[in-house]
Design brief:
Elements lengths: L2 H19 L15 E3 L4 E2 L2 E2 L3 E4 L7 E3 L4 E8 L6 E6 L4 E11 L1 H14 L5 E3 L6 E2 L4 E5 L9 E8 L4 E3 L5 H4 L8 E16 L4 E9 L2 E4 L5 E15 L6 E2 L3 E6 L2 E7 L3 E2 L6 H4 L2 H7 L4 E2 L11 E4 L5 E3 L4 E9 L5 E10 L21 E5 L2 E5 L13 E3 L10 E4 L10 E6 L11 E6 L5 E5 L1 E4 L2 E6 L3 E7 L5 E6 L8 E7 L5 E8 L2 E3 L2 E3 L4 E5 L10 E10 L4 E9 L1
Parallel strand pairs: 17-26
Antiparallel strand pairs: 1-4, 2-3, 4-12, 5-11, 6-7, 6-9, 6-10, 7-8, 8-11, 8-12, 12-13, 13-21, 14-15, 14-17, 15-16, 17-18, 17-22, 17-24, 19-20, 19-25, 20-23, 25-26, 27-28, 28-31, 29-30, 30-36, 31-35, 32-33, 32-36, 34-35, 37-38, 38-42, 39-40, 39-43, 41-42, 43-44
């Protein structure tokens, strides 16, 4: 081949390669510009894995929000809690994307949402859409960022889902679009060793925590000689970090080696939405409830539904049954492959094991579930409500004051997690109230004060409801009306927003409704700040005159408060 032909072939080849590299990306970033993340995919939160990425929006609301790919809006949810104002977009490749904590939608979509809110006379609505009803193109703006729902500051919460499997996927598969950079490795801060009930011991105790330290330029544990015997579970406390931000995240992959053999490998990905609460089985839940620390376990509990265990020997515990030194290594990796590890020795030293818990006829099988029933208390555990077999350890004691309308019933403790709702029934003592709606089932704190309430109804002398918490319960009454306070109801011509503060001290707010000149008007509710507000500019009301304003709040026991005032707008 002569030089001219060779050069021509080279130029043709490079033009093909260049056009391939210059091809339009298959996705568009949901925000622009992309700055840093305040939350990462599957990081550990209270009672759940974080479902996606939290894109920071410079401490401001109303950044444009764009569709990642072609698709259509299938669902919009407006809530005062959780996701706040949220949309789900379905894409033809089998993925869905979720955009949450929005401030509002573009005008055409906002009009549809407002129509449903006024038809239902509710701020909080759920709306489903047919394919093609609200189509979107890749990169098309459809909303504005906000701080609604359970948001701790302005940002976009973004999730990538497998539509058919209903799993949350790691959005970092599109980091070639987001262009996040990271040079900060994850860090292992501590290790916890736990003896399995009746089968293992650590330094003569059931469990011990150790912090990490550096010796000879290697990370190890702060205790030089750790004796163990029997079956032991190992857990680590670790955080991940990213360049350019002080936020903390969770590692992606964990590995446990004993004597160079891989015992357990965990890859935190593809979390089923129905299983996200199983975080409480992945972590040492009792430790988290006690100290707030998240220790991630290498062993898998009997009824843990998570599929994050890539490789595991047995259930991930290890039987230290030889009197010798065992070499242990724990590794963690982040989304960028950055790594930390801790290496330490455990010394098998034979000793008597603590007695196992005595078997009980009340034991609830975690897979099958079942009833626990006493004369005036009942709790039903559906199948798969528990991660391990459960000993109820039920007690009953008389209530300390006339405020209570039942005994105080204790079943288990807050240190045992529940995966699903369970039915609970408590008998009312001195069932004298004419208005049965005033009875409330409440948790009782260790100091005897009333905690949170659960949804329950009166049925033939019992209060029957559902709960996902173990601990102490009793029946109390709620006769207190909700509170309404005026934050801004004057000088509305200059600042046309009515703002009120509303809250209820026990059963919780059931409904809130605002009326101007006798006509229902939309008030938006922010539960985290306990405020409701109405933008008068959105209303078709006559200007420059007095108007009759009324706001009504009801709690879940039917107690009602009415706020009335003449306003000028």
């Amino acid at each position: 081949m002569n030089k001219k032909i060779r050069r021509l072939a080279f130029l043709i080849c490079m033009s093909i390669v260049g056009s391939a590299f210059a091809a339009e990306p298959e996705v568009a970033s949901p925000v622009d510009p992309v700055t840093t993340l305040s939350g990462s995919y599957a990081e550990m939160r209270r009672n759940h894995f974080h479902g996606g990425l939290d894109f920071r929006t410079g401490g401001q609301v109303n950044w444009p929000i764009y569709s990642l790919k072609d698709g259509y809006i299938s669902h919009i949810s407006i809530s005062s809690r959780s996701y706040g104002e949220m949309a789900i977009v379905v894409h033809p490749d089998g993925h869905s994307t979720l955009y949450a904590h929005l401030n509002c939608f573009v005008d055409s979509i906002e009009a549809i949402v407002r129509k449903h809110q006024y038809e239902q006379q509710k701020y909080e609505v759920e709306v489903d859409f047919a394919p093609g009803e609200i189509p979107l193109k890749k990169g098309q703006q459809f909303a504005w960022s906000g701080n609604t729902g359970s948001s701790g500051g302005p940002h976009l919460h973004f999730e990538l889902r497998d539509t058919e499997k209903n799993t949350q996927i790691n959005p970092f598969m599109y980091n070639h679009i987001f262009k996040f950079e990271d040079r900060r490795r994850p860090v292992i801060w501590g290790v916890k060793l736990s003896g399995i009930d009746g089968k293992g011991t650590v330094l003569g105790s059931k469990a011990r925590k150790f912090s990490t330290t550096r010796r000879n330029n290697k990370k190890t544990l702060n205790n030089g000689h750790i004796s163990v015997w029997g079956e032991i579970g190992i857990a680590i406390k670790s955080n991940d970090y990213m360049t350019g931000t002080g936020f903390t995240y969770s590692p992606r992959i964990m590995k446990l080696y004993i004597d160079s053999a891989l015992v357990s490998q965990v890859h935190i990905k593809d979390i089923k939405i129905s299983d996200t609460r199983a975080l409480n089985s992945f972590i040492d839940f009792a430790q988290q409830q006690t100290t707030g620390e998240f220790f991630m376990k290498f062993n898998k509990e009997k009824n843990n539904p998570l599929t994050i265990y890539d490789s595991i020997v047995g259930n991930g515990t290890f039987n230290f049954n030889e009197e010798r030194e065992y070499k242990v290594k724990c590794e963690v990796f982040d989304d960028f492959g950055l790594k930390d590890e801790v290496c330490f020795s455990l010394f098998g030293e034979k000793r008597d094991l603590p007695p196992a818990s005595a078997p009980s006829p009340d034991l609830i099988d975690c897979k099958k579930g079942g009833f626990f029933e006493k004369e005036d208390f009942l709790m039903y555990f559906p199948n798969n409500a528990l991660y391990t077999d459960f000993e109820p350890n039920y007690t009953k004691r008389h209530a300390p004051s006339a405020r209570y309308f039942s005994d105080i019933h204790t079943i288990g403790s807050k240190e045992t997690p529940l995966h699903t709702m369970c039915d609970i029934s408590i008998k009312i003592k001195n069932d004298t109230l004419k208005d049965k709606n005033k009875y409330v089932v409440a948790t009782i704190n260790p100091n005897g004060t009333v905690g949170r309430t659960i949804a329950a109804n009166y049925v033939d002398g019992f209060m029957v409801g559902k709960t996902r918490l173990l601990g102490s319960y009793a029946i109390v009454t709620d006769n207190t009306k909700p509170h309404i306070g005026a934050l801004h109801t004057k000088k509305l011509t200059a600042n046309p927003r009515i703002v009120l503060k509303i809250y209820d001290g026990l059963s919780g707010i059931a409904s809130y409704n605002g009326y101007i000149d006798g006509r229902w008007v939309l008030f938006e509710y922010d539960a985290k700040t306990q405020t409701v507000f109405c933008n008068l500019r959105e209303l078709n009301i006559e200007r420059n005159k007095q108007h009759e304003f009324k706001f009504v709040v009801k709690d879940k026991c039917g107690n009602e408060t009415v706020f009335s005032r003449n306003i000028f707008y």
